Amino acid sequence: MALKAVHVSDVPSLDQPPEAPVVALSTSSRLCKGEGWENKAERLVVIGHRGKGMNALASPDPRLREVKENSLRSFNEAARFPIDFVEFDVQVTKDGCPIIFHDDLILAEEEDGKISEKLVTDLSLEEFRSYGPQRDRTKAGKPLFRKAKDGRILNWAVNADDSFCTLQEAFQGVDPCVGFNIELKFVDDVVYEDEELTRSLRATLRVVYEFANERPIIFSSFQPDAARLIRKLQNDHPVFFLTNGGTQIYGDVRRNSLDEGIKLCLANGLQGIVSEVKAIFGNPTAIARIKESKFALLTYGQLNNVPEAVYMQHLMGVNGVIVDLVQEITEAVSEFISPDAEGDNKALCDAVEAKVKEASRPKFSQHELSFLLRLIPQLVQQQQ
């Protein structure tokens, strides 16, 4: 992984999709409305991951346990900073209500003291609301737990807790100046029929059309058929395909590379790709192919919490980044896209963009080498 990190930094109808919507990214106060993502002069878009950052309960970094992810509190905390969107995960309960929750399973302590695991989409809205902190403070919700990547069951404890919310409550309770990046969430290894996906997507669209008003919306999904169908069901909001870009392999080949993602977008009239940032650093020439296809490119992943990695992407032509450390990254972005910074870095930016277009490895200037030497140790540390 360390060697890869170093190499990666080298180059900075239902059959006929409706006419593509304009990819306008936010309100005029945060981003010029009506300009395309492909405009290379456009500033880098910053998107708050699950609001002000995901909850990584096993992480030694206390910032990742600061505020409950995917909550109204987290969304509004993120909105205090100059972000363009908050990203969150939408699933639909068994009684048809779009709710905001990331994991497939919800873990809680039952009355007998045992930890139960239930599929979120098997719950009714009332059952979903019974977990965690309650809006009615006279009531106690079921204590929440979460499974870490190593299999440990951890108490879902954060400094600033909040109750779960529905998609409707997010529209009604979050700063209207902030756009919503709505990830349409489905279980990874389940094969869905179009009818089941469509039923869920229609439930989400009903809420969007009733409550979105002028708020900018982006839809995204790792589920290729969900992305295909949401594009065919509506013509008002851009649709992006989420992909690990080959950093993880799935049974559905459409999910296994950036080139497969490009093919899916071309075939279905999607407007962009959201890639794991490691896939972009590992295959920087894909940026040229994505841009040639007139797609926007966003990234997600832990490296997006490293300011130097975000800066490198800005030079490479990435349109936006989804980040956990909202305050730190917005401050860094405001510095390196300021007029003075643009002037100081013009030669470097031009050189890197040229290298990406040529799909060749550059001969670095001393300035470029100095920048990369500062970047690489942090990239290596993040990927270990």
Automatic annotation (TrEMBL):
It comes from the Eukaryota. Residues 44-333 form the GP-PDE domain. Residues 1-20 are annotated as: Disordered. Its EC number is 3.1.4.46. It is an enzyme of class 3 (hydrolase). Pfam families: GDPD. The keyword Iron does not apply. Keywords: Glycerol metabolism, Hydrolase. It catalyses: a sn-glycero-3-phosphodiester + H2O = an alcohol + sn-glycerol 3-phosphate + H(+). InterPro entries: GDPD (IPR051578), GP_PDE_dom (IPR030395), PLC-like_Pdiesterase_TIM-brl (IPR017946). The keyword Hydrolase applies. GO terms for biological process: glycerol metabolic process; glycerophospholipid catabolic process. GO terms for molecular function: glycerophosphodiester phosphodiesterase activity. Belongs to the glycerophosphoryl diester phosphodiesterase family. This is glycerophosphodiester phosphodiesterase.
